Amino acid sequence: MKYNIASIRNNTLPQSLIDFSNYLETIKGKSQNTIKGYKIDLTMFFRFLKIYKGLINDETLDFEEIPIADIDNSILRKITLADLYAFLSFVEKYRKNSAYARARKVATLKSFFKFLSSRAKVIDENPAVDLESPKISKRNPTYLTLDESKSLLKAISGRNKERDYCIITLFLNCGLRLSELCSINISNIKGDILTVIGKGNKERTVYLNNACVKALNNYLKVRNENIDKIIDKDVLFISKNHTKMSKRAVEVMLKKHLISAELDSERYTPHKLRHTAATLMYKYGNVDIRSLQKILGHENVSTTQIYTHVDDEKLRDAVKLNPLSQENDE
User: Fold this and answer.
1) Whether residue 135 lies in the annotated active site
2) Per the CB 3.0–4.6 Å rule, which of 10, 131, 194, 195 could disulfide with 206?
3) Taking a C-beta distance cutoff of 8 angstroms, is the pair 71, 46 a contact?
4) Handedness of CA 99, 105, 107, 113 (dihedral sign)
5) Where residue 7 falls among pLDDT bands split at 50, 70, 90?
6) Averaged pLDDT, 282-308
7) 131: helix, coil or strand?
8) DSSP letters of 258-269?
9) What global pTM score does this model have?
10) Are 122 and 73 in contact (CB under 8 A)?
11) Is 298 a catalytic residue?
12) Domain 146-311 is of which CATH architecture?
């Protein structure tokens, strides 16, 4: 058996980053999307570091062109906490990173340097131990109202009507992530039970209501009319080229139907439909926070708690029910 080692070797990345990526995949079981995010953050950090430490020979290079493969262990051992804060200042000022984006980079740096010190034994001291994350102000989720959700469903038309209706119905009823929806296989569906692979390659069960089951059955009838043309016959959502529908294709499709429904196509995304599903379940379904956590596949219940602050009508009614509310009506 021949092995194409060259296809898995990456000569453009530092060995430490390659080792860290392998560790995340094989030991920690992180998804490819998560690993990609770590690589993007660390690549940016290494490029900044070369500028900050004066390690660039060619000053004409654009930031994205700065090579980082030469970041070796001797450079890693000299990194200080001050260097990490300088990087966070850089991404805020020059890359316009929000507090959320900077917080993610802090998490990446902490995880990377913990690996270097406690697993790879490359550095003696971990410079990220005392690295603090920026304060993040809590924001209420953006979501469609019940009436807006119904308007969106009614606006769906076109030659892929059944497919698009099924996708948006699953988003609005099940709160799926975009990556989860695109990876659904027909073999993952057993009656009213759908099995999806969420963040960190964690499997979870999603229960389908009547609207979802009906939308799926209607779509499958149309989908199977061209079964011979479909490349991977187990993939649920198929593109016009008879291949697996990409995340970008789903985003474009949703944008088109939002415009048809006269809704803000810039404000609402597939993830906002996930927010919508969670909000509607909490607001109208009397779903407790722990159950909602399981439905959404949140690892921490604190992530789910943002949906407990969205029902302004209940707050308004509570104030109106105060026994003193009519005291000045004379």
Assistant:
1) no
2) 194
3) yes
4) negative
5) very low
6) 84
7) coil
8) HHHTT--TTT--
9) 0.72
10) yes
11) yes
12) Orthogonal Bundle (1.10)
Tokens of 229: 């043309």
Q: What average pLDDT score do residues 160-173 get?
A: 97
Would you kindly state where each structural domain of the chain is located, as residue ranges?
10-119, 146-311
Pick the catalytic residue from 143, 219, 268, 307: 307
Q: Is 275 a catalytic residue?
A: no
Strand partners, 317: none
Q: Are 178 and 184 in contact (CB under 8 A)?
A: no
> Catalytic annotation on 271?
yes
- Which CATH entry fits the domain spanning 10-119: 3.40.50, 1.10.150, 1.20.1440, 3.90.550? 1.10.150
Report residue 325's pLDDT band, with 50, 70 and 90 as the boundaries. Answer: low
Q: Do domains 10-119 and 146-311 have the same CATH topology?
A: no
Find the catalytic residue in 214, 247, 271, 272. Answer: 271
Task: Give pLDDT tens digits for 56-112.
Answer: 988 899 999 999 999 999 999 999 999 999 999 999 999 999 998 999 999 999 999
At a CB cut-off of 8 Å and minimum separation 6, what does 170 contact?
176, 181, 212, 215
> Crossing angle, helix 161-174 and helix 210-223, to 10 degrees?
150
Of 199, 204, 242, 283, the active-site residue reads 199
Point out the catalytic residue in the list 39, 163, 177, 257. 177
Catalytic residue among 39, 244, 274, 275: 274
What region, left, alpha or beta, does residue 96 occupy, with left being phi > 0 and alpha being psi -120 to 50 degrees?
Answer: left
Backbone angles phi, psi at 57, to 5 degrees: -85, -35
